[in-house]
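During the reporting period the student researcher (J.K.) took over the structure-prediction task from the postdoctoral fellow and processed the backlog of single-chain submissions. One of the processed entries is reproduced below for the supervisory committee.
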Amino acid sequence: MKKTKIKFAIPKGSLEISTLDLLKKSWTKVNHKHRTYRVFLDDPEIEIKMLRPQEIPLLVSEGLYDIGITGKDWIEETKAKVDTMLDLEYGKIKLVVAIPSNNSSNTLDDLINDYFNHKKILRLSSEYLTTTAKFIKKSSSYKKNYGSVDPLIITPWINFGKNQNVQIHLSFGATEAKPPDDVDVIVDVTETGTTLEKNNLKVIHTVLESSAHVIANKQSLSNRLKHEKISDMLTLMKGAVNSNKYLHIYLNIKKENLWKLLDNLPALKQPTISNLSTKNWYSVNTIIPKKDFHKLIPIIRKVAQGLVIHEPKQILELE
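J.K. obtained the following structure tokens:
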């Protein structure tokens, strides 16, 4: 049977550690040397390279890679024509609009109207130029004051857009340090908001919420062999994601207490129940949602013995 090589782009930087952890849960062997850009699995049909997450959507869209992992924020920003296959549920951030805490405005509409009425240029800073422009153009005050004209986007290489009164400046990092001296507003990512607060900024809007996603090239999915291989890879990665949500438990219990337990057991399917060598004793083996475990402890403590808990490496949803 013909072997199919899948080119797989994974993110360097803030998503790197979590992505490598995902690969280690999904495959049995992962080899990566610190400060290198190649990762090797125990599957010769998969070729992996680390890239900046900002680059991955377009590289997958253009077919240089068959699949990739990147943030939903960069899929939105690049407008890449890819298929989003799986939410990996890590790298969770919010893209927010923030302004100096001492600013009396509480909404973007307030701010735009204030600057328009005082004939001042409103300056924003962000790494997310197209997302910021799209979001600001949706505001009612922008439409009222400036119509449908695009904000002026300013980068070191090219400027585009015609509205000189609302400017979006490309940020190369440390965006939270720019107000109030360099810009009036930032559109930046945050996990907890602590960094923004420390820099005397307040959040006035959430633009979008993001996490790491698996994306795929549309032509690769239309290729039968590649589609099959990508489906296998997604099964493994989804199994690793699901494993974070469940616990595998074993315990022993007397016959007289068995139904007290079973009536309260939120099993993934149905528990496996086996006879022990001691008469009227059973072994119960099952998978439960991790979020329900603390609710079971009072019951298990009173009616069972020998509780063993495993965190599964994968839980695969097979056809």
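The committee noted the following: Residues 224-243 form the longest helix (20 residues).
J.K. will present the remaining backlog at the next meeting.
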